[in-house]
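To fix ideas, we quote verbatim a fold written out as C-alpha cells:
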Amino acid sequence: VAYDPNQPEKSMFFGFPSTPGVFDVDFDGYADVVIIGDMGGQVWKWAIDTVGEDPIRNVAYGTDQPNWPFSRFFATDSYLDPVSGNRYWKSLFFRPGLTRIAGTYWMAFATGQRANLRWAGFPSTTDDDDRIYVMKDLDLFLKLDPTPTTLTEADIDGGSPGAADYTTTLGTCNPPAGLGFYVRGAADGEKFVTQTVLFAGYVITASFTPAAVVACGESGDGTLYTFSLACGEGLTVTNSVTSAQTTITKSNMGGGMPSDPQVTMDNKSGDTTVIVRLQDGAIWQPPGDFNAGSEGYGQLYWRER
C-alpha cells in the first residue's frame, strides 16, 4: 500500500518495540511533539503543541484532533534479497533522539536487529547494513506542511547521490550539504543495539557485531560511536591525569553486548564522561572526559521523566 500523507495511519503495519520520545521543547510543562520508530524502519511524528479540541463538549469533531497533525517523518530503505525473495527491514528498537543546535532541531536514530543478534547480513551488498541516521527537522510541528512527503536516504543528501553516506569519512568535520547524513555499520552483521543518546551536540550510541565462531564467553564485540551531530567530527576527550587529548569516533569496547550509554557530568567543572556496561558486567569508559557545552550549544539534552 502506497503511503498516503492524508491517511498516514494506513501505513502503520509494524509494531512499536520502544516507548515514544515525548518532548516539551518550550519547557512549559506540556508535551509538544511525540516521535517513535517501528520495526519496519519508519519514524512517526505527532505534533501536539497547540490546544486540542474537547470531543466531549464539541461533538462536531468526534474523536479527531484536527489541531494535532500526524505524519511519517522518515522511512529507511528495505532490502529485497534476489535469491530468497525475502525482504529485510532496518528495525528501530529505540526511540529517536531530538535536540536543538543554534535554533535548528536535529533528530538521530539507529537501526539494528536486536531480535536476531546472530544475523550476519549479506556480504555481497551494503544495502542491508544497519545505520545511524542524523538529520535536521525543519518543520518539527508540521506547521509548514501538515501532510509532508516522507523523507528517505535520497532526500537528505542535498541532491548529490551518495553524499549523505559518512561511513568512510566519519571523524572529520564535514557539514552536510543537505538535511543530514548516515553511517553504516563497518562490518557485516554489525547492528546498533542501544538507545541513541544526544548530548551537548554529540551522538552517542553503541553497536554489536556477532563473532563468526562462538566459543564459551562473549559472542561478539561492542563498539561505541561518538561524533558531532552537525558535521560528523569525533569527540575529543582529555585525560585528567596526563592532560593527553584523544579524539574518539569509533571505540572498540571489547567482547560482549553493550548496555545503553550513560552520560555523567560534574555540575561544577562541567567534565563529562560516558559509561557503558558490557555483557560480563565490566564497565567501559573513554580515555578521558570532555567539557559539556564547550562547543557553545545551548541545548545539552532532553531528559526523559
The two ends are 37 Å apart (CA to CA). The chain has one domain: 15-50+66-291. The chain has a mean pLDDT of 87. Residues 15-50+66-291 form one domain.
